[in-house]
Amino acid sequence: LGPESEFALKLFAEEIVREIYSRSDGKGAVLVLEAKDEDDARAILSELPLVKADMLTIDIYGTKPYRGFVS
Known about the structure:
Strand order of the largest sheet: 1-2
Largest sheet: 2 strands, antiparallel
Number of helices: 3
């Protein structure tokens, strides 16, 4: 996972990846990204080495502010 970790660290340093977690079931990771939209997120994640090697698939979920904090 060296190249994958290095790329994730690069995205973190560039403040594109805001948070990254390993899944507790060991089946991947969860990344919180700064992206304009889902297409932008997909373009960013398509550069991950394991995605390029067709060894990793990605699921993207858009978010919006939590309604309990918005007046």
